[in-house]
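step 3/5: co-fold with 2-acetamido-2-deoxy-beta-D-glucopyranose
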Amino acid sequence: MPTRRRGIAEGGHATRVAVVRCIVAAILAAIVVAGLVALVFWLVVRPKPIEYTVTRAVVRHFNVTPPPAATVNATFYLNLAIDNPNRRISMRYEDSVAIRVLYGEDGTELVLAAGDDVPGFHQPHHNETTLPVRAVARSAPVPDQVARELEHDLAAGELSVDVQVIAGVRFIVGGVASRYYRVHGTCSPVNIGLSPSAARSFNSVPCDVEIS
Ligand SMILES: *[C@@H]1O[C@H](CO)[C@@H](O)[C@H](O)[C@H]1NC(C)=O
Ligand SMILES: *[C@@H]1O[C@H](CO)[C@@H](O)[C@H](O)[C@H]1NC(C)=O
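step 4/5: write tokens
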């Protein structure tokens, strides 16, 4: 009897080992399959980063009322090129695209002008779209120090600003939409000549694009 009992116990142990082995093998197989699926997806889709570029920047009606109670008037005309270089990914800009003109040092920048609303749109694969944007500051109050810097720029004939782009997108592959991502573009510095002929010599400014 004792011998038989031991035999049963050993048999149970062997079964447990076999079950554990089977589970481990299944997990490894699942990891390999998931890796292959990811690799094939990557090879087929070949995701490339989207690119934003400010290709035109002009300012009109730029003037500053000096301190105290300094205010600024300015109308910015910007072209923002939005490039989707992907052959298999199209993009849906879900919310309106917000474009703002910032002025000042990093960290203490203020919004000088906010662009007109650009409504959401669908961007096909392998496509570049240029958004013309007008951003207006009308009697916008600014701190005295900023007004003095703006007057300095006005006298120097060049205004240096940053352009900020905020959008919400979904990536679409084969009709399936990804989760919602926030896109944050910063184009800096955008140097805008104030002379009437400056627009022709404007150098395009590429933007840093972060997706989160
Ligand atoms: C800015 O524009 C407003 C409205 O058009 C005008 O009343 C104001 O005088 C302008 N300010 C400057 C500094 O030109
Ligand atoms: C990009 O897509 C827009 C909107 O669908 C279209 O109007 C435009 O012609 C496309 N541009 C190119 C270069 O394919």
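step 5/5: annotate
Residues 2-45 form the longest helix (44 residues).
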